[in-house]
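2024-03-11 09:14:02 INFO worker-7 job=invfold-0412 stage=load source=structure_tokens
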């Protein structure tokens, strides 16, 4: 292959190779984007399902706890009030510990996932 005299001559001689390279890079970026979006969509669907089932568990758990306290106290009002108080205490604990239980682990998970995808 003769030496091209300048950069323009180089590109004109290798135009097909450059266009193939650009098309391949664009296809690779497209596939990486599809992979990331599909992983995020799967995680979002899983999170929604987990939240739904957690909600159902809390509702039925609250009913069971309310009826159990009602049996112990002899009054539905007192029993369900104690169950509500238990949920309020649980909510306050989760709210007070939200950074150490939820925020920081989620940040670390996102960072580790992003680092893994870069590699």
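2024-03-11 09:14:09 INFO worker-7 stage=emit residues=119
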């Amino acid at each position: 292959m003769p030496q091209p005299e300048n950069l323009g001559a180089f590109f004109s001689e290798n135009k097909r190779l450059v266009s193939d390279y650009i098309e391949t890079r664009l296809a690779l970026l497209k596939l990486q984007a599809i992979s990331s979006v599909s992983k995020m969509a799967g995680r979002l669907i899983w999170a929604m399902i987990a939240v739904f089932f957690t909600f159902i568990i809390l509702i039925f758990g609250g009913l069971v706890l309310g009826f159990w306290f009602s049996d112990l106290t002899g009054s539905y009002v007192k029993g369900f009030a104690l169950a509500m108080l238990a949920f309020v205490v649980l909510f306050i604990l989760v709210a007070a510990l939200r950074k150490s239980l939820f925020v920081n682990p989620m940040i670390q998970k996102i960072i580790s996932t992003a680092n893994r995808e870069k590699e």
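2024-03-11 09:14:09 INFO worker-7 stage=report msg="The chain has a mean pLDDT of 87."
2024-03-11 09:14:10 INFO worker-7 job finished
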